[in-house]
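sorry for the late reply, my laptop died twice this morning and i had to redo everyting from scratch. anyway the thing you sent over, i finally got around to it. pasting the sequence first so we're on the same page, its 290 residues, then the predicted structure underneath. double check i copied it right bc i was rushing
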Amino acid sequence: MKPQFHKIPLLTHNSYIVRQDNTPQLGSSFHYHPEMELVYIIKGCGTRYIGNNISSFSEGEIILLGENLPHSWRYKEMTVKGESFFNAESLVIHFRPDCLGKDLLSLPEAYLLPRLFEKAKAGLLLSGKTREKVAKLMRAVPKSSNLERIILLLSILKIIAECSELTSISSQPESLQNKNEYDKERLNEICTYTLSNYKKEISLEEISSISHLSVTSFCRYFKSMTKKTYYNFLNEIRVGQACKLLIEDRFPTNIICYECGFNNISNFYRHFKKITGITPYEYKKKYLSC
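ok and here's the structure:
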């Protein structure tokens, strides 16, 4: 999917935007925007697309998205007594990193915020007590005004910035903001080639030639740009595609294994559990039972 730019309507009387949705149209198109986004799924389940990650979502989930990170949520249609409907409710906050003033981010006491915003460029899934605390504060935002509204956003960001209950979602490079144009173009070529050829075996010699580097230089370059090895990146893409196929439920797991570029079942199960924390069977069961 090619992400589309989406313009968030600006409000002159508020520093950030909060929206409550009761429709299944939450980010239905794969899109991006310069605003950060905090999403709380109150009701419903389905499939979410964040960067190059494809996973199921369920009620209670809270995710923080960084600037210009492509994303989309697709709610699952429910059927009761032959009638179809969407059980969907969400709370979304859009804000610019400097919405409370550019000087705030440069204060020594606020040093955790720029770090959080950088991490959020890969998408962050909240869990545990952090999720519970943030959910409670988010529910209070729509009814707040004036200083209370600002305090609530700062309180939410403080909790997230200081916690350890965060999981990165997308395996795409987290930030190319400080890289030169040549490095950006080279990395885009690597990612594009990988996404087009993940089903087959890709050697380091092959991908190095695409980037016009020796194997040693390529490994050093890719690690410096993405903070991970190329094979970790490749396996994350393959597992992401496997998640999509498991959710679609059109092929048995042993077929999905080879469709996603893994050369044997045991290798597929090992990498799938390492990246998702659960087995393909558990992942499929979790989605289909939501």
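The domain at 4-168 is CATH 2.60.120.10 (Jelly Rolls).
thats about all i looked at so far, will dig more tmrw
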